[in-house]
Write a structure and sequence with these properties.
Blueprint lengths: L1 H14 L6 H19 L3 H14 L4 H13 L3 H14 L4 H13 L3 H12 L7 H15 L2 H14 L4 H13 L3 H14 L4 H13 L3 H14 L4 H19 L2
Helix pairs in contact: 2-3, 2-4, 3-4, 4-5, 4-6, 5-6, 6-7, 6-8, 7-8, 8-9, 8-10, 9-10, 10-11, 10-12, 11-12, 12-13, 13-14
Length: 254
């Protein structure tokens, strides 16, 4: 009798995630695509609504749980982010993007060694299409651990593979800025902006480079352009603080 019960339970687990009908899959894909747009625009509550509808359509889609993890990462609700990312990996143990996002979660929490282990798991899959993102994140983790040489090694090798990867250039710029090599920081951040003119992060940090070089007008111009392009982004909030500080400096001059 016990064997029969065990077989029934296993059988139930297997049929609980059977392939869905075509129209159901199309509906799910629609919810995910809309959610991605909302995430890119920073409309996280709208994204949550779409993803919740996606889960009600198909409770067995690992990508939907991964997207929920991304939303909660952005909302800084790390407990929920981890819960959904782990759920994605239960459904798909080889889901490299979920490993990368778990690494990013630990990186944001200051758990750099654990973050590296998740990035390594993401990169263990030779078919991982977003491997460049995991490598960039890993470089950041090594730098924050105090291993600058390893971080530079990863980013330099990555740019040989993907010279068009703007985020790797931004990370190099940030490292050189932090090391007080303003010339190196300016070079890499300008290269990043050539590849991605809309990058708020590159604009913000290049403005910081100009500020530290005493080029206050250039710094202000960059920060104001950032505010104009992405007025509701977190980078714009930081840029407003910098512009306000520059204005105060100007009024305090004799």
């Amino acid at each position: 009798m016990k064997k029969f019960i065990l077989f029934f339970l296993v059988g139930f687990a297997l049929i609980s995630c059977v392939p869905k009908r075509e129209y159901t899959q199309e509906k799910l894909q629609s919810h995910k695509e809309i959610a991605r747009i909302y995430i890119a625009e920073g409309r996280y509550q709208d994204a949550l609504r779409e993803l919740t509808l996606g889960i009600s359509t198909d409770k067995c889609d690992a990508e939907t749980y991964n997207l929920l993890g991304i939303v909660y990462l952005n909302l800084k609700d790390y407990a929920k982010a981890e819960e959904f990312l782990n759920e994605a990996l239960k459904l798909d143990p080889n889901f490299s993007e979920a490993y990368n996002n778990l690494g990013l979660l630990h990186l944001l929490q200051g758990r750099y060694q654990q973050a590296i282990s998740f990035f390594e798991k993401a990169l263990a899959n030779p078919l991982y299409a977003n491997a460049h993102a995991a490598k960039t994140n890993m470089a950041q983790a090594y730098y924050l651990l105090g291993d600058k040489n390893k971080a530079l090694e990863i980013l330099t090798a990555l740019l040989k593979e993907r010279p068009d990867h703007a985020q790797a250039l931004i990370e190099l710029g940030k490292i050189y800025l932090n090391e007080r090599d303003l010339q190196g920081a300016e070079f890499y951040l300008k290269q990043a902006l050539k590849l991605d003119r809309a990058s708020s992060e590159a604009r913000y940090y290049l403005g910081e480079v100009f500020f530290q070089q005493g080029k206050f007008d250039l710094a202000k111009e960059l920060w104001e352009s950032l505010i104009q392009i992405r007025p509701d982004s977190p980078w714009s909030s930081l840029a407003r603080e910098k512009v306000f500080f520059l204005e105060r400096l100007k009024t305090q001059k004799p």
